[in-house]
Amino acid sequence: MIELEHLCAGYGGRDVVHDVTLSFCPGRVLALLGPNGCGKSTLLRAALGLGSRSGGRVLMDGIPLESLPLRERARKAAYLAQSRTVPNITARRMVLHGRFPHLSYPRHYRKEDDEAVDRALDWADARDIASCPMGELSGGQRQKVYLAMTLAQEAPTVLMDEPTTFLDVGHQLEVMAVARRLADAGRAVVMVLHDLPLALRGADDIALLSEGRLVICGTAEEVYASGELDRVFGVALRRVETDAGWQYYYG
To answer: What CATH number is given to the structural domain containing 235?
Structure first.
């Protein structure tokens, strides 16, 4: 479990996240929402010690983040970044990078590493492209590979920054289904999303940021009922009840 206590963080000598207190809880899918530039990505990076934190503290399983070695942090939390390089290797070799926190150097892959990669490729629906060079894949295919790499890390907390980027509607729903399965298996899942209806349908909890501050955090039902999404985004969210549950749309 990761806990942020009065977190302040930023870059370029200025804070873009201000006094945020938030928990990433096992068994829950948390959608992190907010307008562009409100600090969502900065918050995720600071939660992992990858960005500049100017105030507050981060706890991993009750231990201050700075007390943990980098490898231990990586075993506790996996991170799917918003932007990544495209190395000249196959997709499967890329997914194997997710096993690095579990290996000593020089790295020798074990049977359990190959098995973890196979599971991750299946979860991300990327087994059919495992032998393809990364440079020959489409944006959507690469995104599935990076998702598989994150899952191969097998960390109890999974942080994903815009994981549905480049994916068509069907695969966006599949990513949300993967998040649900991870949470049902006891992991904490945090996702930066821009599709509000997708977040409201698929997440247990919503954390809404505006100008670097936490506006509200609660269940999807509580946040929708508050009207804060309409206010912060300047939209009119509506919903209709169907046999499959609430369906959200822009009115």
So the answer is: 3.40.50.300
